[in-house]
Structures are given as C-alpha cells and as structure tokens.
Amino acid sequence: MTVDVRQLQNAQPARLHAAADAYDSLGRANGEHFEAVKEAVRWISHGGNWTGTAAEAATNRLNRTNAKLDGSHTAMQAMGVLLREAADAFELAQSKLLDAIDEAIHAGFTVSDDGAITYPPAAAADRHDPDYDAPKRAKSLADRINRALAEANSADQAVASRLKKITEGADAGYGVSPGAAGTDLNAAKDLGRQLTAAGWPPPDASAVQVHDWWEGLSQAEQQKIVSQHPDLVGNRDGIPCVARDQANRILLPRLIEQYRGKPQLSDEERAKLAGFENIQKRLDGGFEDGGRPGTDPPLFLMGIGDQGQGRAILSWGNPDTAKHVSALVPGLNSDLAGAGAGDASTALRIRQSADQAATANGGSPDNASIFWLGYDAPQLDGASVLTKDRAVEGAAGYDQFLTGLRGTHEGVPAHVTSIGHSYGSLLVGQAARRPGGLPADDVILVGSPGVGTDSASKLGVGPDHVYVGAAKADPVAGAPSRGLLIPGVAAYDSLTNPDGSWFGTDPAGSSFGGQRFSVADGTFSDSHDNYFGKNGKGGDSLGNIGRIVSGNPQLITRQEGR
Fold first, then answer.
1. Does residue 15 contact residue 125 with C-beta atoms inside 8 Å?
2. Is the pTM of this model over 0.85?
C-alpha cells in the first residue's frame, strides 16, 4: 500500500510514541520480574540446601526460563525503539508535507491526493509579466510533496518489515532468545538512523541545498536530529555553526571512548586519540590562552572525525553572525594533536589581531577565526609534501566548507578571508582554481612553496586581493623549483622562470603579482612558524594579517616582491 497525500496529512504519529511508551513500561516491568526471578534462582543454586540431580535439573530449567525473560525484556526494548523511530520519521515527513501544502494553499493552488498541483489559468496580464512564476512555483511545491511522500513510504515499508520480523520471532519463540532479541534491538537503532538519513538531501547536494532543507525543519525537529543523530549534522556543510557545534560536542566524547576502548592501538590511532583528547581539553578550558566555556570569544567545534589522519574544524566566534570571517588551512606537519593546542592558539591570535585592527581603525570587533583541518596534511617524514596530491584532494572539501559558510551566514554577507600557510597555501590555490572560484573576498598566502599557478590573477579574487607573506630565511617559502633540483623536469623550471618555486611561480616574486606585506626575516629554524606571532615573533606579519582579515588592508605595511 502506498501512502498518499491525505493519509500522510491526517496521520497521527504521536500515537506511535504512546505505543512506544507502553512497550517501554512493559519492558521495565518485565525487567523487574526478571531480576526477581534471577535472584531466586541464585538462592536455589547457591544459598539453599537443595542439592542433587533434581536440584541441578531444576536450576538448568530455571536458567533457560531466565534467558527467555531476559530476551523478552530486550525484545520489548526493540519494539519501543522501533516505534519511536517510526514516529520520528513519519512526523518529519508529515511536517514537510504540511509546510508545502500550506504554502500551496496560500498561493491559490490545489493539491490532489497523488501530490499533483494545479493552479488557476494565467490572466492576460500574467502572461506578459516576466515575474509570473506560478508554473515554476507549482513544480517546486510538487517536488517537495513528492519527496515527503517518498520518505513516508520508505519509512512505512522499512518499519513494517522490521515489525514483521520481530513479531514472527516472538510467535516462533526464537525472538525472545537473548541473542536474537539483541540483534533486533541493534537493528531497530540502526533503522532509526537510516530513516533519518533517508530524509536528508543526497550526499552530492550543495551546501546551499542542505541549508535550505535544514531551514525548512521546525526548531524541535532540528534539535531532535542533533541530539539523536549528531553524526548526520556535525560535519555537514550547510548546517549552521551552533547546530554543528552541539552535534560535535556529543560526537567527540564518543570518539574518545571508542579509541580508549580498543585493546591495542596503532601509532596512528594513538595520535588520533591524543588529538581528540587535546580538543576536548581545549573545549573544557584546559589551555590558558582561551576556550573556557562561557568566555569571550566563544569556541565552536564545527567539525570532528577520524577519517585519514583525523579531522577537526574549530572557530573562535560564530561565523554565521560575524562581519569578518577567516579560515586558516595549515600545512606541513599539521595534525590532530595540534588542532586543539597550538593551531587553535594560532587561530585565536588571528582573531585577536583582527579585533585590534578593527578597533584601531575606529570600527567594532566582529570577527570569527576558523582553523580548518579537513584534509591529511603532509608530514615531514613522508614524500607527500613533494607532490600536490593532498592539496588537490582537500581543495574540494575546503571549497564546500566556505560555500556552506556563505549559505548559513545571517544578514549581510560576511567579508571572508582564506588563509593558507605552508602546504596549506597550495590547497587554497587549488581550491581557488576550481570551477566557480573560491567563495572568498581575500586570499592570504604565508610561507608558501607555490600555489600551482604563475599569477595571482588566476586565484579568482583579483591580484589586488591576494596578499603574500614570505620571510627571507623561510626554507619552505624559499624552496627552489623542481626543475632546478631535478634536471630535465620541465614543470616550474627555474631556468626559464626566475621566480620559480616548488609548486609554480613564487607567490612572493614580482612576477606573481600579489600584494606582499612585511614580515620579519627570521632564521632558518623558526621563520616558517612565526607568521602568526608565535612567541611574539614574526615582526609585522600577524598585525598585517589582522588588518586584512578585519577589512583594513590599506593599513598593512608593504614589502617589495623578490
């Protein structure tokens, strides 16, 4: 049987919640009886004076009965979970349907039981009005209605199938064995996530489409998804920052528990666990330079995961409401352990510098500073730093993330600055050269070994909005071209390009065309790490970055291209 518009419109999913509550109550009562019987059996076996063959046989029979009581208790739990997940799925689909129908009625349209929408014939004036959009609007509403019906039908079939399996098991007797009942309970929990995920935009949906869908949910529906299925929310671009933070603060302790519970960790797993623990320490206020709950600036956990070397996105300030937003991509040797420690401190210093620059120029501090570790940064002990593969792989994710920020931002669009440090500048360059360009207003490249192109004009924001910092002693920013080091390699041959760098033209070179700002020369050992004012070093670098991020680039101190 297929669910139609009227059936879903008039459905009463709340009754499923009542049924789930009844099964929960029955399960609790069953559990109490089970504990009482189990205690009685324990007394017979160990505390009484009944011994011998008959006593042994009776104990074995009672133990089998106990197992069935235990299994039936778990089976009732499974029914409660299943009915509650079904109710949630039907309520979500129904809410989407009712919203679309309400919008259609207000537009003067008619909705049929099969989801088709009709609208009055266009008047003569409408036929010549370029803003007349009834056909397009009707199609959009029909698509929304059909998606809601599809979700309801999918949930109906999945729940019916699972209910049938549980009841058949109960009728046959095997369904109340602890093993079978446990399987049913886990399956019911898994089905809940699947039903919720089925109602989401597809994986290839744009961040804007995800945001539009999210905004179509009621506040109660949004909160329910965050609390019950945080894994669907925490890392999805297009979901607002606050919801992502709430979801990821649920996921992070689970990841820590998961890795702590493993009997034997590999070196890579130990590194991830250390990273997760550092991020939790930061969120708990365990670092002196910031992050304590309730302090300013607030810290948001916008992404967390154990893919690859680990993923983490932290933001000082809410990028959905800030006037100025920066997103730093780290480079060589960056890892999850540093995300909650030194790298979080780096993003905080950028925020503080931008606030100071805004105040010095007569403005109000209104900045959000993001640290984005959404890719596997190359490590010094491997050859990955010598190729652009990881930058290319990470570029799409960074582009999607910034697009999501554009979609979730409230009010006037924010001024967005993309910052790439070290190998991260190559990733920013690759993202900027993707179709449609990078959704940023300014680009800052520091300690860059090249961005894979020969000109600032090819980064999509205009050469006047590409800013470059390169310390004289920085071995990474000063890396020669591959053609110089590897004879016969044509790509980036410094013999024909005096500004050659490892990954293209040197961004600090005169021919690149970017706006070079002043930084301290530094030393061979520390200059690459000092662009963001670490230990008070770097000269004008951090101040200049703050001026650009806060929308005051006219105040930077400049340096001639080399």
1. no
2. no
